[in-house]
Structure formats: structure tokens, C-alpha cells
Inverse folding.
């Protein structure tokens, strides 16, 4: 992950920061959004677009971690299963079914268990950030449609 961070820093792309100085509302009632003033709609577009971009950046970081943990887990599990099969061959015991071997590999390796737990946690974060990001996309799209309808109605007058 350190190499990935260094690579990204080397791209010289500015990071997105959500400032605590911005007085963002704790909630916005989308039902009454059509009653908003044009200034409020501009603020909503900025707010929704900004948070969506920020969440996209956070999600991409989590996705790279997820991919790394997935690879580490699969590689570690493959090695552990191989070693277990060798042990069973040497001892002359019948090799258990795949699921039992999988469980045995996890029970014998703290590192493998921690990596799997980390992967599960990152997957949960990804799922939560994805739904949050998608809600901001919907809010942005809804606000944009309201703005478009207002512009369209003015042009028809």
C-alpha cells in the first residue's frame, strides 16, 4: 500500500478536502426541493456534487485496499491449502473435503484470519460508501432536473 500511496502522490493531483468551515445542513428534505430558491439550488448542486466527488475519491482508495486484501488472502489461502495437502499426503491420512481444508487453513493461521477479517471490513466500508455516494448522485440529478425545468419554463414564457 505504501508504493501505491507514493505513486498516487507522484501524480501531483490535488486531494479533495471537505472543509469543516462550510455550514452544510445536517439533512435536506428532497420532497420540498422544488420550492427552493435559485440560490439554494446552486448551493445544493455544489454541495451534492462536492460530496459525491469526495465519496468517489474515498471509494477508490477503499477499492484499492480491497483488491490488495483480496489478493493477499487468496495467495495466502492457496499456500496454506497446498501445505495442508502435503501434510495429509505425508501422514497417509485421507484428505478432507475442500471446505474442511479451508477452515483448517484459517484456524491455523492468524495472519490469514486477520487478512480475511480486514477484507470483510473493507468490503463493508465499500458497500456503505457506495450507497452514500449514490444517494448524493441522485440528489444532484434531482436538483439538476429542477434547475432544467425552471430554465425550460422561463424560455417558454
Amino acid at each position: 500500500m505504501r508504493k501505491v500511496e507514493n505513486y498516487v502522490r507522484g501524480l501531483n493531483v490535488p486531494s479533495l478536502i471537505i472543509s469543516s468551515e462550510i455550514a452544510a445542513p445536517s439533512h435536506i428534505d428532497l420532497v420540498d426541493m422544488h420550492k427552493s430558491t435559485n440560490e439554494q439550488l446552486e448551493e445544493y448542486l455544489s454541495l451534492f456534487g462536492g460530496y459525491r466527488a469526495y465519496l468517489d475519491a474515498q471509494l477508490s482508495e477503499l477499492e484499492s485496499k480491497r483488491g490488495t486484501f483480496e489478493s493477499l488472502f487468496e495467495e495466502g489461502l492457496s499456500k496454506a491449502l497446498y501445505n495442508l495437502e502435503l501434510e495429509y499426503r505425508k501422514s497417509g491420512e485421507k484428505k478432507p473435503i475442500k471446505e474442511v481444508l479451508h477452515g483448517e487453513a484459517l484456524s491455523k493461521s492468524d495472519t490469514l484470519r486477520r487478512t480475511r477479517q480486514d477484507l470483510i471490513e473493507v468490503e463493508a466500508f465499500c458497500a456503505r460508501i457506495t450507497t452514500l455516494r449514490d444517494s448524493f448522485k441522485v440528489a444532484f440529478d434531482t436538483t439538476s432536473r429542477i434547475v432544467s425545468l425552471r430554465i425550460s419554463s422561463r424560455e417558454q414564457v
Remarks:
- The mean pLDDT is 87.
- The longest helix spans residues 38-91.
- The helical segments are 2-10, 38-91, 98-108, 110-156.
- The CA atoms of residues 83 and 96 lie 13 Å apart.
